[in-house]
Design brief:
This protein has 427 residues and is α/β, with parallel strands linked by helices. An eight-stranded mixed beta sheet has the order 3-2-1-4-7-8-9-10, with helices on both faces. Helix 13 links the parallel strand 14 and strand 15. Helix 4 runs parallel beside helix 5, helix 7 crosses helix 9 and helix 10 crosses helix 11. The protein starts with 9 loop residues before the first strand and ends with a strand. The mean pLDDT is 95. Bound molecules: nicotinamide-adenine-dinucleotide. Nicotinamide-adenine-dinucleotide (NAD) binds next to helix 4.
Amino acid sequence: MPENESQLSRLVVVGLGYVGLPLAVRAAEVGHEVVGYDVDTARVGCIQACASYVEDIDDERLRGVVDAGALVATADPAELAGFDVAVVTVPTPLLEDVPDLTYVESAAQALASHLGRGALVVLESTTYPGSTEDVFAAVLQKESGLAPGIDFHLGYSPERIDPGNQMWTFDCTPKIVSGINEESLKQVRAFYDTLVDQTVPVRSLMTAELAKLIENTYRHVNVALVNEMAVVAHGLGVDIWEAIDAASSKPFGFMRFTPGPGVGGHCLPVDPRYLSWRVERQLGRRFRFVDLANEVNDQMPRYVVQRLVEALNLRQRSANGSRVLVLGLAYKRNSGDARESPALRVAELLLRTGAQVHAVDPHVRETVPLDPRARRVELTVEEVAAADAVVIVTDHDKFDYDLVRQQATYVLDCRRRLVPANHIESL
Ligand SMILES: NC(=O)c1ccc[n+]([C@@H]2O[C@H](COP(=O)([O-])OP(=O)(O)OC[C@H]3O[C@@H](n4cnc5c(N)ncnc54)[C@H](O)[C@@H]3O)[C@@H](O)[C@H]2O)c1
């Protein structure tokens, strides 16, 4: 709880997704009066019905704040009126490989007509350095006639939420905060100090924007490095997983990353491209690490399919006509998020070979953009036994791995969830 009531505000959270909903719930729990605004009426309806669509927020927790009237979800922009603090957590995708800030701009437009003097507006969406001021604040100023840093406070605070991570939750993960000037930074920090255990102030909006992109690019590059290592190690006949375990025994100067079927979500496939786009646009040079990481990681689904085709051949089967059971459609373990998921690409490439694809994912909704020729099924003895190959793309804890080990003819395990055996290979 904040130390005094004056730190509590009427808060609006614009965009109630994986980032916005946990923030809105946490803010309501500590005593802010929260209006959650989303253009997606289905999501608003779910919140009103206390049916969470984000794994980290269970229905009971949502009910606690909704029933108390501490969190009100709406799709009506008129309800944004009278806010002290607004936090924007809308998508920042790519459109034909170029940053698409139209969601950020429309969020700013919705806020501008309700923006009052002295209010605080913070952007949390991941974006390229310079855009909080040049794009987000520019729209706010144009539409409201109020100047950032003079008439209202402006901040940027990147989100670090790691869906499904039980140890590093929203409130115990340090949060970078920045402002357009010292007074704005003070306001941003005071607000987030009510929500998280530790805030990390930086001197400018651009520093905070870049910090987020450094974090994501660092992971993207290291995942690409280990993915390329996995391809090379397989060719050399070395067990990459054992080699990584051995390297991880070094207590300094090494951080463990593990290979996989490719990258999904937003942080790795999308965010580093925001940085490389900006670098190329502003500095006229390529960001080669990002380019290379994209190339390596984008190739991984194709490599997975190539390994499956080879394994089927060795068993005197062609991919064409074989049945392949894909385990996991989400891009990460125990998550229902299939955005940019490499599993969708693996399924598509398998279908192109003429394979029949059956796919299992207890977390991912039916609406996921899986090729309609692939069939969604349950993980049963019959399904596993009838498959010519099983590929573990995402190793959800809910899967019955004993069943897979015992019933499968052949398994390609992209996550080293199973101990290798004659019929079980790791990536
Ligand atoms: N998901 C993550 O793990 C994660 C982690 C850190 C940062 N981020 C970043 O946070 C931002 C949001 O990501 P997310 O995963 O929460 O996205 P999301 O798609 O789950 O949620 C965004 C929500 O914003 C809503 N929206 C879009 N335009 C709107 C508008 N004009 N007004 C009101 N609502 C609007 C959408 O309907 C959606 O519900 C992105 O920039 C993302 O890169 C995401």
